[in-house]
Amino acid sequence: MKIIIAGAGSVGTHLAKLFSLENHDITLIDEDMARLMDIGNNFDILTLNDNPSSIHVIRDAGARHADLFIAVTPDEAHNLTICMLAKQLGAKQTVARVNNHEYALESNRELFSRTGVDSIIYPEMAAGKEIMDNIRRSWTRQWIPMLNDQLVLLCIKVRTGARILNVPLRDISKPDSPYHVVAIKRREDTIIPHGNDCLLDQDVVYFMTTEREASYLKEIAGKQDYPDVSNVFFLGGGNTTERALAFLPDYMHAKVFETDPHRIEHLQSLYDDNRIMCINEDGRNIDLLEEEGIHRAQAFVATTSSSSENVLSCLNAKKLGVRKTVALIDNSNYVTMAQSLDIGSIIDKKTLAADRIYHRILKSDVTNVKSLIIAAADVAELVVKEGSRATRHPVRDLNLPSTLTLGGMMRNGVGSLINGMTQLQAGDTVMAFCIEGSINKLGKYFN
Description:
Elements: E1 2-6, H1 10-21, E2 25-30, H2 33-40, E3 46-49, H3 55-60, E4 68-71, H4 76-88, E5 94-97, H5 109-115, E6 119-121, H6 123-136, E7 142-146, E8 151-157, H7 169-172, E9 179-186, E10 189-191, E11 204-209, H8 214-220, E12 231-235, H9 239-246, E13 253-257, H10 261-270, E14 276-279, H11 286-291, E15 299-302, H12 307-319, E16 324-328, H13 333-340, E17 345-347, H14 349-358, E18 366-372, E19 377-383, E20 404-411, E21 414-417, E22 429-435, H15 443-446
Parallel strand pairs: 1-2, 1-4, 2-3, 4-5, 5-6, 12-13, 12-15, 13-14, 15-16, 16-17
Antiparallel strand pairs: 7-8, 8-11, 9-10, 9-11, 18-19, 19-22, 20-21, 20-22
Helix pairs in contact: 1-14, 6-9, 6-14
Keywords: Ion transport, NAD, Potassium, Potassium transport, Transport
Domain RCK N-terminal: 1-121
Pfam family, one: TrkA_N
């Protein structure tokens, strides 16, 4: 496929890297030569140093032959204009990143489609939902519903005292077990585990299970002492916090600390709710946090525009006794640092945005893909085709590469875990887990 990306920021460069691993024809446009040189020297990508909103630049980049044209510059208006122009110049499909949640509403989809913008990506919406999913299950680092909520992917950090440590997986995760270990992050390494592997203290582990069995995992992972969250503090009242508050459960109360009085007024106009208190003060002030009752909060979320401030604020909240902290990270360089500091949950809205776009063109009929922020791994949802290699033998005899594992599937609307004895059938929807960059190996099994 020919794919053109306008904007070489975090979203654009992440997308370019993902697409290049699939051997697509990628052109990346940006006015910042330094950004282009950084990625162009390491990946098979054509770079174009020019204004991506210029008609002649869009034409020269090959919009006429583009299967997908993606606009992810920092300017929302430019992104919409670029997509409209690219569509008129012949691009088959266009995707624009926006900063206004109204544009992302399903009711406005047809309006944008008529103007040449086929898809709208609003990163703050996905980030807000993910934040609230993490808070509602405070004992997890990530809680990701899969296959129409039939299955769930849980990320948990296991520590001394967990019943599942230091035992080969073949002995604790048997064919009839209610969970499947699909990925392990151990220090700097990501492991797709097999029967001889063991879970060790401080491992960050991804489990596939059902929501019904999640309480069992909470028990065996040694997380019974984590409290349910009824009070949460937010540092920063920007768009991500605004969207997170839209998902606030009825039983939860929130305090939002924001220094911009205009944002405070905006949030108060949106959420005239006695469960949400907006405070026009600097939430980094420890004396203020103590005065506002942080000792009664079970969760602290930092969503300012500074990744470093978010990480440090979460560390302070931990010192003040908050058990669950969530940091919004805009700079991928902070992910490893935040993990080493034991911050808790990490939300990268730019990676979330890239994931939403990436799944649109993957091979193997993949209908959804998600990068595991903590681990260098991807999880892909795909449909088994009639006569494909995956249908010829039980999973244990498919000779899958060591970098891949199958976690769960849905057949006739019912979700179940996959084990070595599972015989896949045409039409099954399967969740595959793989080391980052190896998704392209799925094609020969499922096509």
